Amino acid sequence: METHEDLIAADDVLLFVNAAITATGQREFHSGGAEQHLSLEFLHAYLLGNYRELYAATLALDINDHNAALIVRNLLTTAAEATAEQRRTEGRLIARRLALLPPQRVYRLFAALRRARVNNRRTRAIMRDWLAARPDPALDAVKYRSGLKGALKHAHLPPPHQELGPFLFRAKQPASYREPLLDAWRRAHFEQAAIYELPFTVAEGFAAKHGIARGAFLERIAPNLTRLERLRLQGSARALGAAAVSAELDRMPLTRLASYVLGLPLEERTARRAELTGALTAAAERTAGPLRGSWGRVAAVLDDSFSSYGSGQKRRRPLAAALASHHLLAALATEYRAHWTSGRTDALLLHPSGPTPLGLRILDALDAAPDRLLIVSDGWDNAPPGLAAEVLRIWRTRLDPHGRTAVVHLNPVYDAEDFDVRRLAPGVPTAGLRDAEDLPALVELARFAEGRTGLPELRAHLADRVAAFLTDGNPA
Amino acid sequence: MTRLTLTGLTPGPAQVWGAVRLVPLLREQPITDLRLHRRLFPGQELGVAQLGGRSEYFSYVPHAFVADWTNDGSSAAAYGTQLTPPKPDLPSLPAMRLRMHRRLARREGPGRLRFLPQHLALEGYLALHFGGPTIAWSEWSQRAMRGGLSPRAEEAYLGSEVRGLADALRVFEIHPGQCGMLLYLADALAAAFVVPHPADYRALHPSLLQDLYGELVHHYATLMPPVTEFRARIPGPGITGLADLRAAAEQQAQHWRTAHDALLAAGLLDAEYTAHRVYRMGPFTLSRLLPPLLPKQENHIGETITDGDGRLAYLKTFRLSEKLVRRAHLLSRLAAHDWHLGRTAADLGLTPAQLGLRLESAGFGLLLRQDILDGYRKAARRG
Question: A363–B175: do the CB atoms touch at under 8 Å?
């Protein structure tokens, strides 16, 4: 028998998961950065205090990196409050998650732990194991110099490589290194050619120091660029005449690619239509994987209203999530139709504008009686306000009481005021959405939000995810 | 006497944010032969406006509007969409700088006029019976006879101090074809703003934040709870299929588009205004409007640009606070009776003593001779 407390616990955990997927403490369209921080910190403290195990288990879900780092930090800070059993599970979850986080975030996390004076045995062990697993300590030493230095000092660890000791701690003394990367860093101080043996972010500083023209620098550093640096820089590189910087779009993750496409001017999108659409479709099909074509007839209502611009910090993020979902759904469905709120039909030429007439678009989508209806929107339904909720309510209570059509609302924006993503209608499950890649998993999670399944099921689901996460380390 | 009509403009669906309600005004046919853009004076918001003659006044002037027009009806260029490099030869001084504005509306070249928005209207209000008594009745002080009402100062609030307005302007979605808006705070009309072309509106939309708003508006925004928003409602019974649902939803959408009628703006549109022509610009006329200045009613001062057919191309209004209206009302009644206290008092249904005390409480006490005022006070105490 399920108790009232159980229901509340399930609700709280779902609330937190939605927040942890969407919120990054950055400014959103409807609320400022400070509000976001305050709201998110409260949620973390609340969940940690009340449901420590479930809080740790969310590390196994598709939450964003910002929240993952925050959870790790909170768990390590309050290690004394946990039982031995809890600590063991937490340790494994943390180690697994840290391996998936980008290294700069982990170094930032270590710095935060150092500032907070968290230096228990478990923290030191976690830092030791993570550093030991880094593939190339010399690269880390050059690229994340202060991060690595701080971590070694904080955890009382010997440098992982015998030359790193002098490199990190006695760099002022003239020395030569056998390790080529370290030696390149030393020579780059006075020799221009050595710059091009370094990673891009490090070389950039040296190039500025030597006064090398940006175009020439980009042309020569091109082989050292990472995938995302390449994507970010190719526009400005082309303007500067550095043709060597070009991104292979077909290897990019889907949502990142959608963001990139939306950042291009409309003329360029038209000119490169075949290339961009091809890349998006390929990425979507790669993401769909074995689920491809298994979702039946799908209709989607996608928000490209003015508010999908997001904010100066998360520029066009909601729209990028919608565009990526559009392509992913096309790959998942056997038969797919998209309805953009602006009425546009060309997905490649989207831009945020106009009000959000969600209600009428939902009706258009229901016309075809699809098996699934997915709504990707920030939940601000304003033309007219509340029509979407009414349409969905009448549809669910009068026209489709047996749930022939599964309706799910995915929301890419965290609402700081409500500590959750904004809901469209009470009867429609809502889940947070960060990357469209997580969409299938989120649709599964959203069924818990309907209120028909309670805490035991949610616990079982989390346990499954944790087990899968710990064994194969694949968070999907 | 004229009336304000929003010819060619249709109200669109309202949007709500806290206590702010914004009703967009949409134009089917944008006016293309008159364009407005804004000239900013960053860091030099405190300005001296020289009115010609020897009078001038100090004020907060964040920007000027520049109107470009053509006489033959062909399209004018919008300067607001061009980027101009900042002048590198202007060093930023640590001291606050004053900017001199020669005249409120000034021709800058053929087919081009620079004017200070709101100041036209405000100047019309401030200069109201500025000269003081026209006949030297014995009750008036020497100061009133010599200097009139000088200096006359009034207070208003900056848009960025009005609570929620900045958020509202950021969040509202500009409708296609929007050429203006009616701004309500706690459902009291605070301002109306109309421009000739949607592109101009897009460029001038943020300027609303730098405008002046009356005391009343500021209080409403700070003290009132959020206004109710239109919420769609579809009754369940009677809906048997998707077609019924669609019909009901479209009816709601239609209702939402037309839910705002002129009723809310009645205070602005029903009043009889005195219009003064300020400038003729080709086929267009720039004029300022003064309301009848009746206490306990909505009073908006404003400025308009109308074309030859009387179509409204530009409108900006400022709602006078109750205090401002009372002061203006007193002055206009006094002026109507040649500043004779007895006759004015009789017209207002007061005794001269009551009128004298009312003048004092309105801030005009210095205009009366001290002994006369003391006599009025004594009379009031005696009852």
Answer: no
Is the CB of residue B86 less than 8 Å away from at least one CB of chain A? no
Q: Which residue has the tokens 């309050």?
A: A78
Mutate to test the interface with A, among B22, B173, B246 (most CBs of A within 10 A): B173
Number of folded domains in chain A?
1
State which residue of chain B sits closest to A365, comparing Cα positions: B242
- Is A333 within the bounds of a domain? yes
A309: distance to nearest CA of chain B, Å? 11
Residue to mutate among A301, A306, A392, A394, with most B CBs inside 10 A, is A394
Asked if A86 contacts A53 with a C-beta cutoff of 8 angstroms, the reply is yes
Residues of B in Cβ contact (< 8 Å) with A307? 171, 173
Tell me the per-residue pLDDT of B202-225, one tens digit each, with 9 for 90 and over: 888 888 888 888 888 888 888 877
User: How many other C-beta atoms are found inside a 10 Å radius of the C-beta of residue B160?
Assistant: 12
A314 lies in which domain range?
273-453
Separation in Å, CA of A398 to nearest CA in chain B: 7
Residue pairs between chains A and B whose CB atoms are closer than 8 Å: 79
SS (H, E, C) chain A: CCCHHHHHHHHHHHHHHHHHHHCCCCCCCCCCHHHHHHHHHHHHHHHHHHCHHHHHHHHHCCCCHHHHHHHHHHHHHCHHHCCHHHHHHHHHHHHHHHHHCCHHHHHHHHHHHHHCCCCCHHHHHHHHHHHHCCCCHHHHHHHCHHHHHHHHHHHCCCCCCCCHHHHHHCCCCCCCCCCHHHHHHHHHCCCHHHHCCCCHHHHHHHHHHHCCCHHHHHHHHHHHCCHHHHHHHHHHHHHCCCCCCCCCHHHCCHHHHHHHHHHCCHHHHHHCHHHHHHHHHHHHHHHHHHHCCCCCEEEEEECCCHHHHECCCCECHHHHHHHHHHHHHHHHCCEEEEEECCCCCCHHHCCCCCCCCHHHHHHHHHHCCCCEEEEECCCCCECCECHHHHHHHHHHHHHCCCCCCEEEEEECCEECCCCEECCCCCCCCEEECCCHHHHHHHHHHHHHHCCCCCHHHHHHHHHHHHHHHHHHCCCC
pLDDT band at A148 (very low <50, low <70, confident <90, very high): very high
In whole angstroms, give the CA distance from residue B377 to residue B383: 10
Whether residue A59 contacts residue A93, with contact meaning beta carbons closer than 8 Å, is answered with yes
Question: Which residue of B lies nearest to A385 if distances are taken between CA atoms?
Answer: B231
Give domain status of residue A152, yes or no.
no
User: A184-199: per-residue pLDDT in tens?
Assistant: 999 999 999 999 999 9
DSSP assignment, residue B186?
Answer: T
Decide if A423 is inside a domain.
yes
Which candidate from B175, B230, B245 shows the least CB-CB separation from A384?
B230
Q: Is B236 on the interface with A (CB under 8 A)?
A: yes
B242 interfaces chain A, CB cutoff of 8 Å: yes
In chain B, what residues touch A29 (CB-CB under 8 Å)?
Answer: 171
Q: Amino acid identity, residue B206?
A: P
Which residues of chain B have a CB within 8 Å of the CB of A31?
none
Please report the sign of the dihedral spanned by the C-alpha atoms of residue B109, residue B112, residue B117, residue B121. Answer: positive
Q: Hey, what amino acid is at A317? A: R
Checking if the pLDDT of B90 tops 50, the result is: no
Whether A359 shows a pLDDT value over 90: the answer reads no
Q: How many residues does chain B have?
A: 383
Q: Look up the CATH number of the domain holding residue A429.
A: 3.40.50
Residue numbers in A near B253 (CB within 8 A): 357, 359-360, 383-384, 387
Give residues with Cβ within 8 angstroms of B187, minimum separation 6.
Answer: B21, B227, B264
CA A391 to chain B, closest CA, distance in angstroms equals: 7
Tell me the nearest-neighbour CA distance from A430 into chain B, angstroms: 21
Summary mean pLDDT of chain B: 78
